[in-house]
Design a protein that fits this description.
The complex is a heterodimer of chains A (107) and B (645).
Chain A lengths: L3 H21 L3 H25 L4 H31 L20
Helix pairs in contact in A: 1-2, 2-3
Chain B lengths: L6 H16 L5 H24 L8 E7 L9 E6 L1 H24 L6 H20 L3 H19 L6 H32 L4 H11 L5 H17 L8 H4 L5 H10 L4 H8 L1 H4 L3 H23 L4 H21 L3 H28 L6 H7 L1 E2 L1 H15 L6 H13 L5 H27 L3 E2 L8 H16 L14 H5 L1 H4 L7 H30 L7 H5 L4 H74 L6 H20 L1
Parallel strand pairs in B: 3-4
Antiparallel strand pairs in B: 1-2
The chains are: A mainly alpha (107), B mainly alpha (645).
């Protein structure tokens, strides 16, 4: 039986890793992967907690989370593809349509 | 047997789901067979229940699952099959099965068969759920489900705007009743904190005094719901227009089953209604007026299906009359026989109309159309049963039973006279239709023979329209009275007047249909020479109810809107003009003294300050995804830190 703290440490590591990927990488696909890693961290927490309290809800939650993530990822991939098609880039730095342009004056 | 109960509403609903989800992979034949099999499964389960002695034993019960659990209130999806439900379930699933079979041939040339069978199956499931429900919430679910299916099937050919608006009209009109029913259910829940029917009846009989005001209000609300669904005055206007749907739909929903849901509801809630004689009398009075309304309006119709629609309104009036007089068993009896002969009439009418290029006018159908002998026979049987030709038809027995029990009720004599008059007019209008259709129509040479799948349901229904009455002979006759004794435990016995009176009443009531048929014969002969009934326009438009509603409700609303508009233009515009002028004077004064000196300078200062702030803030809004993520993280860390320490 794995102690709870070990699982939680791994989960925290996964979460931080995902967060770092999101903050540091510039490629949209990598950012999505970082999101996935973060989700895995969260799911691992749920499973670890479920094991600790010997309750099946954690596993149910994880399966649910996986399904939702898959659905969400499908939509995100479509968006990335659309971005590539319209703007011809997948780098996050180049997507600055929302940037406020002070020269134009207030909207 | 208890465990199989879910199959009765479950099979049609499952089949509806399959059709709507996977119907794209299936051909017409498969969908039609699947839908009919589902109806057959429901019917076979009901038969199994009969064979297992559901008719005599305790009510069957099954709780499928707990629907909602809020505190100690747990409405279940629970089914209950007692004798009242058994009657309803048998009729609904039996007639439903026959009409599914009939539809196979009838809808074969239509492209939207998938939608048709989906709604037909869903309707069947909803109706069975309605009559099997053991709590009011589930009953209401079924109630709304059949309303929805009725709307969708009336407007089935929705590309024709008239038909689509007929569907909307039905939905909106019944909605008024549904709202009232929902309010009644809320009231019951707020009083007793439960919706389970057996518990509710115990609580009602314990806690509410007879004639109490609360009981009267609740009963009236539920009665109004029944009025909407069963097309009684004043909410009857939707039913004649509902004939825009396909004929099998009219037969199933608007004659045999859905419109009788109101009758079932009142019969089911009879412990409540027995507490309030006033509401009960209202039920009877509405029923009596509706009998006369429907029968007289049917007299002047020229559209074959509209004749039958008005006739349905009037026949349901008989059921309400019986309910109001406390003869619940006879109301159900008439419901059953009416389901048989009216669906027979509708299916025959549908076949005739389809064989003659969708011609609805009875005069033209009679003079040009050819009708096969089968149609002739089936229509005659249905018409005879509807008119209540003595001794040989089912309609006679059920109507007779109602008429004799009306007499001893309060103001029973008056109600009896109205109902008897209704019988006479019923016989006149249906035989007028019959004579116009068949008297000198050509022999069926040119038209194609009727599909065999359509013939069998007609035969079975015709047989039932004749024989279904023999289970209950009128009071004082040497014959079995199985029906009323069987339902005695549920409803108690209906009171009869003394035997001598009974015989006189029966004699009069059984002569009236024959008299009516004679009058109809003379009427048709005169009508063919161009004679028109007095008041025929008034009657054809259903006593001008539609026009009145249009003037009173729609016109009233417009009048109100115009009134408000007038007020607006008079009051507000005038005031605004005055105010504007005042402001103008004030503004010119301010401008010279105030604006140039104070405002301009102040505003300029403010503007430059804001610009500076904007420039500072907009560096944060740089559109960089990663920077935003960093911000979110920083915020989250800050909040976490704030909460933890």
């Amino acid at each position: 039986m794995i102690p709870l703290s070990h699982s939680l440490i791994i989960a925290a590591l996964l979460f931080t890793l995902g967060l770092l990927i999101i903050m540091l990488r510039r490629e949209l696909l990598f950012i999505l992967m970082g999101l996935e890693v973060m989700f895995n961290g969260a799911a691992l927490t749920a499973i670890a907690a479920g094991q600790y309290w010997t309750n099946a809800d954690g596993q149910v939650l994880t399966i649910f989370l996986t399904v939702v993530t898959a659905a969400e990822l499908a939509i995100a991939l479509i968006l990335v593809w659309l971005v590539f098609e319209r703007l011809n880039t997948t780098r996050a730095d180049n997507l600055k349509l929302l940037k406020d342009n002070i020269d134009r004056g207030p909207p | 047997m208890n465990q199989l109960l879910w199959l009765i509403p479950g099979a049609p609903i499952l089949s509806a789901l399959i059709i709507v989800l996977l119907g794209g992979f299936l051909r017409y034949r498969h969908i039609a067979v699947l839908a009919s099999c589902a109806a057959a499964a429901a019917f076979l389960t009901v038969l199994l229940a009969w064979l297992n002695g559901a008719a005599n034993a305790q009510p069957l019960q099954q709780t499928v699952y707990t629907w909602v659990a809020v505190g100690d209130w747990r409405p279940t999806v629970g089914l209950m099959l007692d004798r009242i439900s058994l009657v309803m379930v048998s009729v609904v699933s039996g007639v439903g099965l026959l009409i599914h079979l009939y539809s196979i041939a009838f809808m074969a040339k239509d492209n939207d068969y998938r939608r048709y069978y989906f709604f037909l199956n869903l309707f069947l499931g909803g109706m069975l759920l309605l009559v099997l429900a053991d709590n009011l919430l589930l009953l209401y679910l079924g109630w709304e489900l059949v309303g929805l299916c009725s709307f969708a099937l009336i407007g089935f050919w929705y590309r024709d705007p008239v038909r689509a608006s007929a569907g909307r009209k039905a939905f909106i009109t019944t909605r008024i009743g549904d709202l009232s029913l929902a309010l009644g259910i809320f009231l019951l829940f707020s009083q007793f904190n439960t919706l389970s029917l057996p518990v509710l009846f115990d609580a009602i009989s314990e806690q509410w005094q007879p004639n109490s005001q609360l009981a009267a209000i609740t009963a009236f609300m539920i009665f109004a719901g029944a009025v909407g669904k069963s097309a009684q005055i004043p909410l009857q206007v939707w039913l004649p227009d509902a004939m825009a749907g396909p004929s099998p739909v009219s037969a199933l929903i608007h004659a045999a089953t859905m419109v009788t849901a109101g009758v079932y509801l009142i019969a089911r809630m009879h412990p409540l209604f027995e507490l309030t004689p006033l509401v009960q009398w209202t039920v009877a009075a509405i029923g009596a007026v509706t009998i006369l309304y429907g029968a007289s309006s049917a007299l002047a119709q020229n559209d074959l299906k509209r004749v039958l629609a008005y006739s349905t309104i009037s026949q349901i009036g008989y059921m309400f009359l019986a309910l109001g007089c406390g003869a619940y068993a006879f109301a159900l009896f008439h419901l059953v026989t009416h389901a048989f002969f009216k669906s027979l009439l509708f299916l025959t009418a549908g076949a005739i109309i389809q064989a003659n290029n969708h011609e609805h006018d009875i005069h033209r159908l009679g003079s040009h159309g050819g009708h096969s002998l089968l149609m002739h026979g089936c229509f005659l049987v249905g018409a005879a049963s509807l008119a209540g030709i003595p001794v040989i038809t089912a309609g006679f027995y059920s109507k007779e039973a109602i008429l004799t029990t009306v007499w001893p009720a309060s103001t029973g004599q008056l109600l009896w006279v109205i109902a008897a008059l209704g019988t006479l007019v019923t016989s006149i209008y249906i035989f007028r239709t019959y004579f116009l259709l068949f008297q000198n129509s050509q022999k069926a040479v040119s038209i194609s023979p009727v599909n065999r799948m359509m013939v069998w349901p007609l035969f079975i229904l015709a047989l039932l329209s004749i024989t279904a009455g023999f289970v209950e002979f009128p009071a004082g006759w040497p014959g079995p009275q199985l029906w009323s004794t069987w339902l005695e435990n549920e409803f108690g016995t209906a009171t009869h007047p003394p035997l001598a009176t009974v015989y006189v009443l029966q004699l009069i009531a059984s002569l009236l249909p024959l008299l009516g048929a004679g009058i109809a014969f003379l009427l048709v002969r005169r009508e063919k020479t161009g004679y028109r009934l007095p008041l025929s326009d008034f009657l054809r438009d259903g006593w001008k109810f539609d026009a009145t509603y249009k003037i009173v409700l729609v016109g009233g609303y417009f009048r109100l809107a115009h009134f408000f508009k007038l007020i607006e233009s008079l009051l507000i515009d005038a005031m605004l003009h005055k105010m504007t002028r005042g402001y103008k004077v004030f503004a010119t004064y301010c401008r010279t003294g105030f604006e140039y000196g104070v405002l301009n300078r102040g505003l300029n200062g403010l503007l430059s300050g804001l610009r500076f702030g904007h420039a500072q803030l907009s560096t944060a809004q740089n559109g960089l995804l990663n920077r935003y993520a960093l911000m979110i993280c920083a915020g989250a860390v800050f909040l976490l830190g704030y909460w933890l320490w």
